[in-house]
Amino acid sequence: MVTAALKCPFCGSEDVRPYGTSNGKKRYACNNTECSHQTFYAEYTYNGCKPDVKKAIIKWTADGAGVRATARGLGVSTDTVINELKKKKR
Ligand SMILES: [Zn+2]
């Protein structure tokens, strides 16, 4: 049986350990001390909470997609897109 190696969604490290559960979802801790986050979930309930989607919001916007196009394309609400863009002032 092949199990997909679990990677930290923030730094890509495979050096992770189980860190209990929260709301019935498994939680993991990243062992990389330089990682920007300490814990993460293997599954997220909402698309807007996924680290990948947050990165994608920035990328889509940088590529010239509007707020509504980004929200539709990523399956999140326009509020999620706007909140995320307000957070990242780069
Ligand atoms: Zn990490």
Short account of what is shown:
By secondary structure, this protein is an alpha+beta fold.
Question: Characteristics of this structure?
Answer:
90 residues, alpha+beta, 3-stranded antiparallel beta sheet, 3 helices, 33% helix, elongated, binds zinc ion
Task: Outline the structure in words.
- By secondary structure, the protein is an alpha+beta fold.
- The protein has two domains: 1-43, no CATH class; 45-90.
- The protein is 33% helix and 18% strand.
- It contains three helices and three strands; from the N terminus they run E-E-E-H-H-H.
- It has helices spanning 51-62, 67-74, 78-87, and strands spanning 16-22, 25-30, 39-41.
- The chain has a three-stranded antiparallel β-sheet with strand order 1-2-3, with no helix packed on it.
- The N and C termini lie far apart (44 Å).
- The mean pLDDT is 88.
- The structure holds zinc ion (ZN).
- Zinc ion (ZN) binds next to loops.
List strands and helices in order, with pairings.
Elements: E1 16-22, E2 25-30, E3 39-41, H1 51-62, H2 67-74, H3 78-87
Antiparallel strand pairs: 1-2, 2-3
Bound molecules: zinc ion.
Zinc ion is lined by residues 8, 10-11, 13, 30, 32, 35.
Please tell me the overall pLDDT.
88
What small molecules does the structure contain?
A: zinc ion
How far the N terminus sits from the C terminus, by CA atoms, comes to 44 Å
What overall geometry do the principal axes of the alpha carbons give? elongated
**What is the number of helical segments per DSSP (H or I, 4+ residues)?**
3
Which sheet architecture does the biggest sheet show? Answer: 3 strands, antiparallel
Q: What integer value in Å does the Rg equal?
A: 15 Å
Report strand %.
15-25%
Helical residue percent?
A: 25-40%
Which structural class fits the helix and strand makeup?
Answer: alpha+beta
Low-pLDDT segments, ≥5 res: none
What's the β-strand tally? Answer: 3
